[in-house]
Amino acid sequence: PSMELYLMYNSARKIFGKSGVTVTRSLVGSYVTSLDMAGCSITLTLLNDEMTALWDAPVHTAALRWGL
User: Fold this and answer.
1) CA dist., res. 59 & res. 66, Å (int)
2) Do residues 16 and 23 touch, judged by C-beta distance below 8 A?
3) How many domains, the chain?
4) Which of 41, 37, 40, 67 is nearest to 54 (CA)?
5) Pair 66, 26: CB distance under 8 Å
6) What is the pLDDT of residues 9-68, one digit of tens each?
7) Tell me, what CATH number does 25's domain have?
8) What span, in angstroms and rounded, lies between the C-alpha atoms of 33 and 7?
9) Which residue, 32, 34, 55, 67, shows the most beta carbons closer than 10 Å to its own?
């Protein structure tokens, strides 16, 4: 459920903040699912200016849409 994912995200963000990691972009949701999967996954990446610009660019795919 989405509520559980947001609770996990908020907990992780607090832990990252205490470690000096700044979260600047996030996606929370069921993007890659499996019928028998339990739990969640968290992926982190270091963003430079080019990667940030690409992240912020308009997207129109089957799974993601924004900036259009």
Assistant:
1) 5
2) yes
3) 1
4) 67
5) no
6) 999 999 999 999 999 999 998 887 888 878 888 999 999 999 999 999 999 998 889 988
7) 3.30.1180.20
8) 18
9) 55
SS3 65: strand
Joined together, the tokens standing for residue 6 give: 């947001």
Q: Is the pTM of this model over 0.70?
A: yes
**What is the extent of the structural domain holding 57?**
2-66
> What count of Cα atoms within 13 Å lies in the side-chain half-sphere of residue 42?
15
3 state SS for 18-55: HCCCCCCCCCCCCCCCCCCCCCCCCCCCCCCHHHHHHH
Specify the DSSP element, H or E, that contains 64.
none
Amino acid at 43: T
Distance CA 68, CA 58 (A): 6
